[in-house]
Design brief:
The structure holds three protein chains of three kinds. Chain A has two domains: 238 residues, Rossmann fold, CATH 3.40.50.300; 184 residues, P-loop containing nucleotide triphosphate hydrolases (Rossmann fold). Helix content of chain A is 34%, strand content 21%. Chain A has 15 helices and 17 strands. In chain A, helix 7 links the parallel strand 7 and strand 8. In chain A, helix 4 runs parallel beside helix 6, helix 5 crosses helix 6 and helix 14 runs parallel beside helix 15. The mean pLDDT of chain A is 90. Chain B is mainly alpha-helical. Chain B folds into two domains: 129 residues, no CATH class; 82 residues, no CATH class. Helix content of chain B is 74%, strand content 0%. Chain B has eight helices and no strands. In chain B, helix 2 crosses helix 4. Chain B is flat, with a radius of gyration of 22 Å. Chain B starts with 5 loop residues before the first helix and ends with a helix. The model of chain B has no long low-confidence stretch (mean pLDDT 86). Chain C is mainly alpha-helical. Chain C is built from nine helices and no strands. In chain C, helix 2 packs across helix 5, helix 2 packs parallel to helix 9 and helix 3 runs antiparallel to helix 4. Chain C starts with a helix and ends with a helix. The chains are: A alpha/beta, B mainly alpha, C mainly alpha. Chains A and B meet through helix 3, strand 6, helix 4 and helix 5 of A and helix 6 and helix 7 of B.
Chain lengths: 435, 227, 188
C-alpha cells in the first residue's frame, strides 16, 4: 500500500510552483492511478514525494508522511527507496546513466549489489518480454527518443520494484512510441504492479487506468473511479482544462487549403519531400518515426539558406537563446541594432514587460515567443516549429494555437512538425504527410 | 581487432610516458623507443581509427623530419624545439587516443573497481564519461542554432562570441545534469552496498604480449641506469 | 559526500574538461604550448566558478583535481600531472574550506590554486631535459645551448606562477559571468 498522510510541501527554490497542500491519498496494491492537471499543479511533486527526490534532492519544507508498505520515504535514504520503486522520467535524453544499453539495464540491479548471474537472467527476461533484443549492446546516444524511453522502462523493469512511477513519460514521444509505451504499462498492470502516472496526454492511458485524480493547486480536486472515467467526455475534460482522451493518429487527419501562393523548396536527394509550401497558412507536418522529420527540417533550413526566409524554432528553445536579456537577444538579430525597432517587435509579441529579463529565466512558451521575435527581427517570414507543444498541458497548447493564428494574421507562414493531433485540430489549415 | 584489458592499456600508457614522453634511458633505449613510437599507430589501425592514426603519423613525421634540417638558420632552433615536443608527445597522445576510443565506460569502471579505486573517484568518472557526449550534443545544437540565426561575431566581438557559446552550453548542460542526477539517485546510485559489475574484463594472450613488452622495456632501462 | 555530490563532480569535470580541451588543441602547435598556461586557467574559470556554487562538502575540489590528473594519464600526457594535481587540489580545497565553502574572494583564490594542476603537463619538458638532449649529440653543442635558452630551467617556476595568476583572472571572469548570466538565469 502507498500512502500520503496530510502531506504539505513547498520547494525552497520556488515556493509557489508545484507545491502540495494537506494531501491525503491511499493507493492499494495493484492499482493503476493516473494523476492529471495543468502544469505546475503539483502532480510531478507527488511522484517526487514517492521516489524520495522530495525532500532529499529537491529541498523544501515538508510536513506529514509518505509511506510505501508502511516505511516512511522521507526518513529513508534515497538508495533505500530505490529498491521499492522505479521511476520513468520525462526527458529521454537525461535519464540513462551508462552509454550502452546492456549496462543501463543492469544499472539498478548493480547498485543493489545483486549477484551477477541474477542480473543477467533478469536482463534476459526483460529483453524477451519487452521484445527489445534488437536494442541490446547499442550506444544509447545513437537511439531515437522512443527507443531511449523503452530502455528507460526496461531498466526499471529489471530492478523489479513493486511500485512503478511515471512522470510525464510520453512528453517527448510521437504517436507510435506513445502507443508502445502503453503496451509496456499494460504489461506491468497485468503483472499486478502498482503504477502511478503523472500525465496530461490522457488518450493513451485513460482506458487502462483504474482511477484518476485531478490535481489543482496542490490538492486533489476530483477523484474519478473507473466508472466515472468511462462516462467522461472530451467537452467535460476541456472544462477541467484537460486534454483529449480520444486517440487520433495525426497521420490520419485530413486537411487542405487553397495553395494559390507557394514557397518552392529544392527536391531532396534521397527523400521525396513535398517541394511546395503554402504561404500565409499554418501547415502541419506529420509522419511516423523514421519518416524523415529531422531530415526534412534540416533540408528546409539548408535549402532556404540563400533566400533567408526560414527561421526554425527548435524543440529545445534553450539552445537558440544566447544573450543575457530578451532585448539584447532581439538586437543581435536585427541587421542594424536599432533599439526602437526591437522594442516594437517585442510589443507585437506581448514581450515588452520582459525586455530586461534573462531569456533562460522565462517559461517555455515565453522562450518560444522570444525566438519568434528574433525571427521577426531578422526579417524572416516563414517559421518552422519542431514539436512546439511537446509536454504542454491543455491550456498552454491552446495558447500556442492562439499564437500561431495571431502570427498567421500578421502575414507569416507557419510550418509545424508535430505529433499533437489536438494542436493540428485547433489551428492548422493544411497538412503535409511524410512517408 | 586486438582486444586488451583496460589495465593493460593503463600499463601501456605508463610505458609510453616513461620511454617516449619521459625519454628515460637515453640512447641505449633507442630500439624500445622506436617500438613504442610505432605501437600506438598499430593499435589505432587495429581499432579502425585510421583517420586519427594518419593525422598523428603526419605530425610525428613532421617532428622527425625537422631533425634533419641543416644547422645554421636561426629559425631552425625553433623548428628543433617543435620537433622535440612533437616526437615526445604525439606517440603518447596517440596511445591515449587509442585507450579512450577503444574502452567502453563500463569496462573502464570495472577495471577501476578491480584495482580497488574508491567509489568517490569511480562514480564521478563514470558520470563524466557519460556526460561528454551530452556536452558535445549541446555544443553542436547551439552552434547550429547560431548558424541558423546568422549570428556571427567578427573582430572586436570575439569575446562576446565565446561568451554566447560557452554560457548557453553550460546552462543547458547543468540543467540536463540535474535531471540525470535525479534519475540516477532514484535508481540507487551511491548506495553503501558493494556494487556488482556485470561487465566482464580479463587478461588474454594479447595482454600477456603487451605485458612482456612493457616489462622488457622497463627492465632494460632500469638495468642500464643501474650499471 | 553523498551520491548527489559525486554526480555533480562528474558533471562539472566533464564541462570543465571539454572547455579546457577545446583550447588545449592549440597545444598541438608546439609554439602555443607555453601559452596554454595562460589560456586554460582563464577560460577554465567560467565552469569552475559555477562548480564552486555546488561545493558544500570536503573533498569535492580535491576529487575533481585528481580526476583531471587521471584524465591526463588517459590522454597520454604522462603520470606527473596527477601527482601535482593531488597536491594543488588539496590546497585549493583547504582554501575554499577556510571560507566556509561560500566566500566569494576565497573562491577566486581557490581557482588560482586549482589551475596549477596544469603545470604538471610541462614537467616532462624540463624533467631530465639534459638527458634527452644529450642523446642528440649529433646536433652539436650550439643547438643544445640555443635550446636551453628557449626552454630554460627558470621557465619551469614561471609557468607555475603564470598558471596561478591567470587562474585568478579566470576566477574573476567566472565571477563576473555568474552575475551577468547564471544568477539571472536561475541556475545557481
Amino acid at each position: 500500500m502507498t500512502e500520503l498522510k496530510d502531506v504539505s510541501f513547498s520547494y525552497a527554490a520556488a515556493p509557489e510552483k508545484g507545491c502540495i497542500k494537506h494531501m491525503d491519498l491511499t493507493v492499494p496494491d495493484g492499482q493503476f492511478l493516473l494523476l492529471t492537471g495543468g502544469s505546475g499543479c503539483g502532480k510531478s511533486t507527488v511522484i517526487r514525494l514517492l521516489n524520495g527526490l522530495v525532500p532529499h534532492f529537491f529541498e523544501g519544507e515538508l510536513s506529514g508522511d509518505v509511506l510505501i508498505d508502511g516505511r516512511s520515504v522521507p526518513k529513508m535514504e534515497l538508495y533505500e527507496t530505490a529498491a521499492m520503486q522505479g521511476t520513468v522520467f520525462q526527458n529521454p535524453r537525461a535519464q540513462f546513466f551508462t552509454v550502452d544499453t546492456t549496462g543501463e539495464l543492469a544499472f539498478g540491479c548493480e547498485n543493489q549489489g545483486l549477484p551477477e548471474e541474477e542480473i543477467l537472467s533478469r536482463i534476459d527476461r526483460t529483453v524477451e518480454r519487452f521484445r527489445i533484443a534488437d536494442l541490446m549492446d547499442r550506444n544509447i546516444f545513437a537511439m531515437s527518443g522512443g527507443e531511449k524511453q523503452k530502455i528507460a522502462c526496461a531498466s526499471v523493469d529489471t530492478a523489479q520494484p513493486p511500485l512503478i512511477l511515471l512522470d510525464e513519460p510520453s512528453a517527448n514521444l510521437d504517436y507510435a512510441s506513445t502507443m508502445q509505451l502503453r503496451e509496456i504499462i499494460k504489461l506491468w498492470k497485468a503483472e499486478g504492479r502498482t503504477i502511478i502516472a503523472a500525465e496530461h496526454r490522457l488518450f493513451y492511458l485513460w482506458d487502462i487506468a483504474d482511477r484518476a485524480l485531478l490535481i489543482r493547486d496542490g490538492s486533489i480536486a476530483e477523484d474519478w473511479s473507473r466508472a466515472d472515467m468511462d462516462s467522461m467526455t472530451n467537452e467535460k475534460l476541456a472544462e477541467y482544462g484537460l486534454r483529449s482522451i480520444h486517440d487520433t493518429d495525426p497521420v490520419t487527419i485530413e486537411l487542405s487549403c487553397s495553395r494559390s501562393e507557394v514557397f518552392s523548396v529544392k527536391p531532396h536527394k534521397k527523400f521525396t519531400f513535398p517541394t511546395e509550401i503554402p504561404l500565409h497558412e499554418i501547415t502541419a507536418v506529420v509522419g511516423r518515426n523514421g519518416a524523415g522529420k529531422t531530415t526534412f527540417l534540416r533540408h528546409m533550413c539548408r535549402s532556404a539558406k540563400r533566400s533567408r526566409r526560414i527561421f526554425m524554432v527548435m524543440q529545445d528553445v534553450d539552445h537558440q537563446l544566447f544573450t543575457d536579456s530578451v532585448l539584447e537577444e532581439v538586437l543581435i538579430s536585427l541587421p542594424d541594432e536599432d533599439e526602437e525597432k526591437a522594442r516594437e517587435i517585442l510589443r507585437s509579441l506581448d514581450l515588452e514587460d520582459y525586455a530586461d529579463r534573462h531569456p533562460m529565466s522565462l517559461s517555455g512558451g515565453q522562450k518560444q515567443r522570444v525566438a519568434i521575435a528574433c525571427a521577426a527581427a531578422s526579417g524572416r517570414d516563414i517559421l518552422l516549429f519542431d514539436e512546439p507543444t511537446s509536454g504542454l498541458d491543455y491550456e498552454h497548447m491552446q495558447q500556442t494555437a492562439q499564437l500561431f493564428r495571431q502570427l498567421r494574421e500578421q502575414g507569416r507562414t507557419i510550418l509545424v512538425v508535430t505529433h499533437d493531433s489536438e494542436l493540428i485540430e485547433a489551428c492548422c489549415t493544411d497538412i503535409i504527410r511524410l512517408e | 581487432m586486438i582486444k586488451l584489458d583496460p589495465r593493460t592499456k593503463l600499463l601501456l600508457l605508463l610505458a609510453e610516458a616513461i620511454v617516449v614522453l619521459g625519454g628515460l634511458g637515453g640512447s641505449s633505449a633507442e630500439p624500445f623507443k622506436t617500438v613504442f613510437m610505432v605501437l600506438p599507430f598499430l593499435l589505432l589501425f587495429s581499432a579502425k581509427k585510421v583517420r586519427t592514426a594518419v593525422i598523428g603519423g603526419l605530425l610525428l613525421g613532421l617532428g622527425l623530419a625537422a631533425e634533419f634540417i641543416p644547422a645554421g638558420h636561426s629559425c631552425s632552433i625553433i623548428l628543433l624545439m617543435c620537433s622535440g615536443i612533437l616526437t615526445r608527445f604525439v606517440p603518447s597522445i596517440m596511445m591515449g587516443n587509442y585507450v579512450m576510443s577503444s574502452t567502453k565506460v563500463s569496462e573502464f569502471t570495472a577495471a577501476m573497481e578491480r584495482m580497488h579505486v574508491t567509489q568517490k573517484i569511480t562514480i564521478p568518472m563514470a558520470v563524466m564519461f557519460r556526460f561528454f557526449p551530452t556536452v558535445k550534443e549541446e555544443c553542436s545544437a547551439i552552434g547550429e542554432a547560431m548558424k541558423m540565426r546568422d549570428i556571427r561575431f567578427g573582430g572586436s566581438k570575439v569575446l562576446q562570441m565565446a561568451e554566447y557559446r560557452l554560457v548557453p552550453m553550460m546552462t543547458c548542460s547543468v540543467k540536463i545534469g540535474e535531471e540525470l542526477s535525479a534519475a540516477a539517485l532514484t535508481r540507487g546510485l551511491g548506495s553503501p552496498v558493494k556494487r556488482t559489475n556485470v561487465c566482464r574484463i580479463g587478461f588474454h594472450a594479447a595482454d600477456i604480449v603487451m605485458f612482456l613488452l612493457c616489462a622488457a622495456a622497463l627492465g632494460w632501462i632500469i638495468w642500464r641506469s643501474v650499471t | 559526500m553523498k551520491g548527489k555530490d559525486l554526480i555533480n563532480i562528474g558533471i562539472f569535470s566533464a564541462i570543465y574538461f571539454v572547455v579546457v580541451m577545446v583550447f588545449a588543441m592549440l597545444g598541438f602547435i608546439p609554439v602555443f604550448m607555453p601559452l596554454l598556461a595562460v589560456l586554460v586557467p582563464i577560460v577554465g574559470g567560467i565552469p569552475f566558478m559555477l562548480f564552486l556554487t555546488k561545493v558544500k562538502k570536503f573533498g569535492m575540489i580535491l576529487i575533481m583535481s585528481i580526476i583531471m590528473g587521471i584524465m591526463m594519464i588517459l590522454t597520454g600526457m604522462g603520470f606527473f600531472t596527477v601527482i601535482v594535481s593531488a597536491v594543488t587540489g588539496l590546497c585549493a580545497e583547504l582554501i575554499y574550506k577556510s571560507g566556509q565553502y561560500r566566500s566569494a574572494s576565497k573562491a577566486v583564490l581557490t581557482h588560482g590554486v586549482f589551475s596549477m594542476w596544469l603545470w604538471g603537463n610541462y614537467l616532462p619538458l624540463f624533467f631530465m631535459a639534459d638527458k634527452y638532449w644529450s642523446t642528440r649529440q649529433d646536433f652539436g653543442q650550439d643547438y643544445i645551448d640555443a635550446l636551453t635558452k628557449l626552454m630554460p630551467m627558470w621557465m619551469c617556476p614561471v609557468l607555475l606562477v603564470t598558471a596561478f595568476v591567470c587562474g585568478i583572472i579566470g576566477g574573476l571572469l567566472g565571477k563576473a559571468l555568474m552575475k551577468k548570466h547564471f544568477a539571472k538565469a536561475g541556475i545557481v
